Structure formats: C-alpha cells, structure tokens
C-alpha cells in the first residue's frame, strides 16, 4: 500500500514537472517574433505601395511618408518592463496549476478509484490466517456470508502470488462446493490435485467437485478417484457416502445398499446418522422391488441405575429375544461401553439365525449386559437389565440394575 502512494506522488511530480517545462519553454513563434515578422511584412508592403503611388503621381512627399512609417515601427517595440510583466504572469500560472493537478488527481481517485475497497482488500488479506482458523475449527457459531466472501477474496489474493499452495486451493475449493459454484470448485480442486496427487483429502475434494459436473467424463474420473481411496488403509466415511449417492443416482441400487451398509458398520447404531442410512437402504430396496417391512428395527434406550459399578475395559452387549422368553437371541450386537444414557438401534443386519430375521418377530424382549471380562460365555459379576415386552418399531427402555 505504501508503494502505491509513493508511485502516485512520483507520477504527480512528473506531471507538474512537465507543466513547468511547458510554461518555461520559448516557442518558435512567440509573441515578439510574430509581431516583428508582421511589422516587417507590413513595412515592405507599404513601401511597395508608396513606390506605385509615387510613380502614378499620387504622392508628392514620399520621403516624409517613409519616415512616418519607420516611426510607427519604433513605437511598436515593447518596453522592457512590459516583457518583465509578461514573465511574471507566466510564473503566476505555475502554482495554481500545480495545486489544481494535485487536487484533481487525488480528488478524482478518492471518488472514482475505490480507495475504500482497496483498503478493505488489504485488511481482508491480512486477516486470512484468522478466517482460515475459524473455518477449520468448525466452531459452534458458523461463519457469516460476509466472512465467507472475505475468506474467498483473501484466498484468491494469496493464491495469485503463491500458486503452489495446495492447502489454499483445497480450502478455496471447499468454499466453492459449499456455495454450489461448480466451476470454481473444479478449478481449485484440480490445482490442488496437480500439486499433491497422493493427498487423500485432495483426492476426495477433487472427486466431490467432479461428481457435481454434468459431464460424463468428469463423473467417471470422480469414480476412479473414489475407488482408489477405498483401497487406502483408512477410508473417510464421505468416500462411501459419495459412492452410495452416485450408485443410487445411476439406479445401481445394490451397490448403493452395499456402501450404506458399510457406513452403518463404521458409525455404529448409537450414531444419529444410523437411522438416516437405514431409511436410505429401505428406499433403495423399494426401488429394487423388494418389500420393505415397516418397523423392522428396534431402538433401545439404555440407562444405569445408581450404584452400578462399571469396570474399565468393559463392553456393552445388547440382545433381542422373542417375547416368549427364549434364551436364544434373534439379534445381538456388541458396542464399546461409552457413556450413559445412550441409544442403540438393532435391525436385520444384526440377526444371528439363518432364516429368522429381527423383522419377523411379532413381540420381543431386549436384554442388555455389561460384559466385564470380554468373554460372553461368562457372566459372574456382570450387571444387566431387561425390558418389558415390546413390538418392532417401538423405542424400548432398559435400565441396568441387576447383577449376576
């Protein structure tokens, strides 16, 4: 910014210098020279006229007329003081002209040049680290639209000077994805991928951008990138989500169900997204023509009674039994102990017997046990609880309050 103002001062100084040179320069045809030339021409013309008039007998005192003509020429020569006055008047033009140049230059820039916008641009660019930190932190208070615009402007400015900053391109691409700006997102993610082609986050971001494209080649490339990410040691949940959504859109419902089922196993029934994935699977099955059994899952709310001692390293075992009291569970699942109260969801994926699914039960009882030694066959000292008889689709409450 300082360099900019120094440059403007230098340009204004050059303009004033050119003005000074113009005012002080002596023209080839200035007033004095022009007057002298005119007087000479007039004198010669008048002499020619006098000679013609004399030859015609019109003039008797030719010499007297010539003397009068010479005297008139002498009277037309300016005095030295007049010349000095002329010089002073030219110098007097310089100061107001210079002031006018400065006022017009900076005045018009302030009005038309966007000085406030330039100032704001520099402030936003300087605030880039703080804005980026707020975005990446994912604080409870979301960023405002103005802050997102400021962050985009700051990122574009930085990337103009640091074109190999893959993190900056990735961040710009994510902002564009959030704003549904497909062109910007694709360009930004492509630059990030060009710089770091082996970065998993960059691959995922680039695949997300390509997936939003209407071009079949872009979508095929996105699928290729997502498929390569599945082969990594750690797979981001969003990879399966994108593959499932893409498969569903292409009416490959079997693949969509497979990907959503993998996601369910990754997050566990206690996650709030589990039910949403269940509904997505049911929707895909319905599109395939398979009957969807309503209420084929059971949600279990688990709580601990006061005084229950929970050993470290224990696990939570939840089993669903027929309402007739059969000890053999139809479905069961094992979870990390976690915190209480908590809710888990069991469905046909947790069925244990071939040919008999959870969805086939008309009535059920849920039993919950805290396994203290990691061996499901032993129960000595374990705490447990059992629900009242219930039906599929209902929320079952179990209070762990007894000990073997």
Automatic annotation (TrEMBL):
Superkingdom of origin: Bacteria
A Gene Ontology term for the protein's cellular component: cell envelope
The Cytochrome c-type biogenesis protein H Ig-like domain, residue ranges: 298-400
Alphabetized UniProt keyword annotations: Cytochrome c-type biogenesis, Membrane, Repeat, TPR repeat, Transmembrane, Transmembrane helix
Residues annotated as domain Cytochrome c-type biogenesis protein H TPR: 117-274
Keyword Transport appears in the UniProt entry: no
Compartment(s) of residence: Cell envelope
Signal peptide span: none
TPR repeats: 166-199
InterPro entries: C-type_cytochrome_biogenesis, Cyt_c_biogenesis_CcmI, Ig_CycH, TPR-like_helical_dom_sf, TPR_CcmH_CycH, TPR_rpt
BP-aspect Gene Ontology terms: cytochrome complex assembly
Transmembrane region(s): 6-25, 88-109
NCBIfam families (UniProt xref): cytochro_ccmI (TIGR03142)
Protein known as: Cytochrome c-type biogenesis protein CcmI
């Amino acid at each position: 910014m300082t360099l900019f103002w120094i440059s403007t001062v230098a340009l204004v100084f050059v303009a004033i210098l050119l003005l000074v040179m113009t005012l002080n320069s002596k023209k080839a045809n200035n007033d004095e020279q022009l007057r002298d030339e005119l007087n000479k021409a007039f004198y010669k013309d008048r002499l020619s006229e006098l000679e013609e008039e004399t030859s015609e007998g019109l003039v008797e005192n030719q010499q007297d007329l010539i003397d009068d003509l010479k005297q008139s020429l002498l009277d037309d020569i300016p005095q030295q003081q007049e010349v000095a006055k002329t010089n002073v008047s030219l110098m007097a033009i310089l100061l107001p002209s210079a002031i006018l140049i400065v006022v017009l230059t900076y005045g018009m820039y302030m009005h038309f040049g966007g000085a406030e916008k330039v100032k704001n641009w520099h402030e936003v660019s300087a605030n880039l680290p703080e804005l980026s930190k707020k975005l990446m932190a994912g604080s409870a208070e979301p960023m405002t639209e103005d802050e997102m615009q400021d962050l985009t402007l700051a990122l574009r400015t930085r990337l103009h000077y640091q074109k190999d900053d893959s993190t900056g391109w990735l961040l710009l691409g994510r902002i564009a994805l959030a704003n549904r700006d497909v062109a910007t997102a694709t360009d930004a993610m492509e630059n990030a991928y060009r710089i770091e082609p082996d970065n998993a986050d960059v691959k995922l971001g680039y695949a997300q951008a390509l997936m939003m494209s209407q071009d079949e080649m872009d979508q095929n490339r996105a699928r290729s990138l997502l498929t390569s990410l599945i082969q990594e040691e750690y797979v981001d949940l969003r990879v399966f989500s994108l593959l499932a959504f893409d498969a569903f859109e292409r009416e490959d419902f079997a693949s969509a169900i497979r990907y959503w089922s993998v996601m369910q196993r990754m997050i566990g029934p206690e996650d709030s997204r589990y039910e949403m994935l269940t509904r997505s699977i049911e929707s895909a099955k319905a599109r395939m023509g398979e009957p969807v059994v309503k209420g084929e899952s059971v949600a279990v709310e688990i709580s601990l009674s006061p005084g229950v001692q929970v050993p470290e390293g224990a696990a939570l075992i939840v089993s669903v039994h027929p309402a007739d009291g059969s000890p053999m569970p139809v479905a069961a699942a094992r979870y990390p102990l976690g915190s209480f109260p908590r809710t888990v969801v069991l469905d046909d994926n947790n069925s244990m017997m071939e040919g008999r699914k959870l969805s086939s039960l008309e009535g059920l009882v849920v039993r919950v046990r805290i396994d203290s030694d990691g061996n499901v066959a032993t129960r000595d000292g374990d705490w447990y609880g059992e629900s009242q008889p219930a039906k599929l689709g209902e929320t079952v409450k179990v209070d762990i309050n007894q000990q073997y």
